[in-house]
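BUG: 3D viewer hangs when loading the predicted structure for this chain

Environment: internal workstation, default settings.
Expected: structure renders.
Actual: progress bar stalls at 90%.

Input used:
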Amino acid sequence: MPMRRRPYPRVLQQFLESEAKGGFLLFFAALLAFFLANSPLVGAYFGLREVPVGLKVGAFALEKPLLLWVNDLLMALFFLLVGLELKREMLAGELKEPRRAGLAVAAALGGMAFPALFYLLLNPSPPESRGWGVPMATDIAFALGVLALVPRVPLGLKLFLTALAIVDDLGAVLVIALFYTGGLDGLPLALAGLTLGLAFLLNRLGVRWLWPYLLLGLPLWYFVLKSGLHATLAGVLLALAIPLRRAHPFQGATEAEEPEALEGELEALEEAVEEAQSPLHRLEHTLHPWVAYGVLPIFAFFNAGVALGGLQMGSVSLGIALGLLLGKPLGVFLLSWLALRLGLGVLPEGVGLRGLFGVGFLAGIGFTMALFIAGLAFSGEMLDQAKVGVLGASLVAGVLGFFLVRTALDRPTA
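Structure tokens produced before the viewer hung:
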């Protein structure tokens, strides 16, 4: 039987366009925050972030500054989307194909390890050393937004950058869970595990409605918040329990028992329908516009503002800039080259090594996840230094990446 083409181009194109447009909105939100933080409205801007917001039901009460509701609750939706994208890519997307996954994973590993090492070269001791995770991150929305400005970009290059960023996001999630978590509280952690177990049980029992999983997501978020882990990790955990396949009339039957009519092209058609209607795809499709056009711009507005008056650049800013502008492209390119030499990966169609080097700079656009980790690693002046390093380096990386990718595509692939 000839190899069947997977029915993803339209879905992927919608995803890539959504991320690209969201990147531009993200940029303007960050620019507005930066302007307000350095204007006569600076007091109102920083005062808005500290407005107390609470929820009280009977004896239950939860109160946080508005900034933390954005970073802990709204960003949990972003992490939920990251988890959905990761699961889809690993089970039914680019990361399912071993050689395509090999190149993306190698590039992501290089793009995480090299920036962290470059940062630690300049900041070997605490408290500055706590920021080693900041330059590891890649902002998929910004990176795809810049790539969208390049004419005639092959779809394979967009998919490679997307897969790289998704693996990079997984690395960032693990870094947050392992290295930016405080002391753990056993009881809430156990309750979080029980809640997550119920979600996986629903999946195992074949429950394909979304609402039971989303209802479990609320107590899961609260228990993770109280456990000492960062609350946003609840989004990734919940995503792993969301079913990728919808129920169908032959669920549970053996292959021999299924009608022969499901073979061949009809089987491919059914697979396309299943994937399009699966709970994971429905939730991912629903979340994308809310996250791209709502959650991430709001996060940028509340986190990108930094007052430059009296701020002195230090090793934190320089280390982050060095990691994003030198460590990222070197790590992405060198480990991609190594994966190709060892036969562990394959170049996307129409893309050469020059294109991969340009993508390495686009991966140096850290922004959302980098600012998020910076907020976990630092406070006060060091946090401001980290923000300046992230914003400045991301801007330079975007400009360099744009010109390098455009130049590479104007020449024959190597």
